[in-house]
Design a protein that fits this description.
Elements (H helix, E strand, L loop, with lengths): L4 E5 L6 H15 L5 E5 L5 H8 L5 E4 L16 H7 L3 E4 L2 H6 L4 H13 L3 E6 L3 H5 L3 H12 L5 H4 L2 E5 L13 H18 L2 H6 L1 E5 L7 H5 L6 E4 L6 H10 L3
Parallel strand pairs: 1-2, 1-8, 2-3, 3-4, 4-5, 5-6, 6-7, 7-8
Length: 251
């Protein structure tokens, strides 16, 4: 299926000095990784992360960006700014952005458009709340999020999109979707993309699972046929655990 990508989402953790120290701890542990490795750090840590990863294969991601190139948007960061810094990736649509900061399917779509226009690769997060899973509408929710976010994205641009399935009920809760549940929704996402584009585009798409993936359960989750990597939260802040997940991905 898609290329394996293991990305850490550090959320609001680590000062620049701490970010440098953690990346320096991670570097030798993943130097021989057979998969793509990315660290997603707070805005304030981006330069430190870029400096620390220089000369390595580790990519650097921002955790959000605005859709406009500039303007009266106090506290926001434009994709163009990230690109000029040398940042290659941006995480968009994370459930914490949707839940706490008002991101909607429509605003996520605009952010995706802005990021792609700036030349960034997007890690697009989708996923359902617990009550939605209990109502049996996981498929509809996730399919809608994918379809809206990819609105106006060409097949060529899709090559710069990674989709991360993150069931909201499994993020930071210690609960994890079973390997079968994760694979079922990742397969559904692939099927939606096949309908929007074609079978080749769907096969090439990298679909990650996120939601309490850790050193203990990574191997089982990453062995699933439609899971092409992970978007890692808490475990990404511990170099040995993150390394274990990276090496659990079978190419």
């Amino acid at each position: 299926m898609g290329k394996y990508v293991i990305a850490g989402n550090w959320k609001m953790n680590k000062t620049p000095a701490e970010a440098t120290a953690l990346i320096n701890e991670i570097k030798p542990l993943v130097a021989d990784a057979k998969v793509d490795v990315i660290v997603g750090v707070p805005f304030i840590d981006l330069q430190a992360a870029l400096d620390a990863t220089k000369g390595t294969k580790i990519g650097v991601a921002a955790q959000n960006c605005h859709w406009e190139k500039s303007g009266a948007f106090t506290g926001e960061i434009a994709a163009e700014m990230l690109k000029e810094m040398g940042v290659g990736y941006v995480i968009l649509g994370h459930s914490e952005r949707r839940t706490y900061f008002g991101d909607t399917n429509e605003s996520v779509q605009k952010r995706v458009r802005g990021a792609l226009d700036a030349g960034l690769t997007v890690i697009l997060c989708v996923g359902e709340y617990l009550e939605q899973r209990e109502q049996g509408i996981t498929g509809e929710i996730v399919a809608t999020q994918v379809k809206v976010a990819l609105g106006g994205v060409s097949a060529e641009e899709l090559k710069r999109v990674i989709i991360a399935y993150e069931p909201v009920w499994a993020i930071g809760t210690g609960k994890t979707a079973t390997a079968e549940q994760a694979n079922e929704v990742c397969a559904l996402i692939r099927d939606v993309v096949k309908g929007l584009y074609n079978e080749a585009a769907a096969k090439e798409l990298t679909i990650q699972y996120g939601g309490s993936m850790n050193a203990k359960n990574a191997e089982e989750l990453l062995a699933q046929s439609d899971v092409d990597g992970g978007l890692i939260g808490g475990a990404a802040l511990k170099a040995p655990d993150f390394s274990t997940i990276v090496h659990a991905a079978k190419v």
